[in-house]
Amino acid sequence: MNDEYRTKAYKTESELDEEPYPKGVALVAFLMIAESSETGTKEDPKHWSQPTGGTAYHSDNLFEPEVIDRVKLEDSSAAMPYNYTVRWTNNKGEHTFVKDVPHEAFLFVDEPETGDQFVENAFRHYIGIPDDVFPNGAWRNLE
What we know:
Elements: H1 13-18, E1 25-30, E2 46-47, E3 62-63, E4 66-72, E5 82-89, E6 95-102, E7 106-110
Parallel strand pairs: 2-6
Antiparallel strand pairs: 1-3, 1-7, 4-5, 5-6
């Protein structure tokens, strides 16, 4: 999905109603919000911001927002010239709208407990490590 959507625009809420993403995947985004006086409502959204001297692409900034709108950028040298407006819901159920989220800030991940390691009857194989790869010493109880 990540390879496919590298050159394809992410779907908005209305587009997802007609054609949803496959089961087992979730769209997440690296959200960094600039300090500002915006309220974060739909009418007055906050702005996405790349931090100075750092990166927004860190797991602490990874959230699961809903894409509300997509805007094509004019005169953009980016591979995907879109910025998105998203709605992010925190763990208290409060909504924050963020605009100007770049295409590169999005990523598909496996939904919880849907990765290959959770498949019933998945192939499992014992991996043995021979004793002679570890050094002998007082710490080894050979008895």
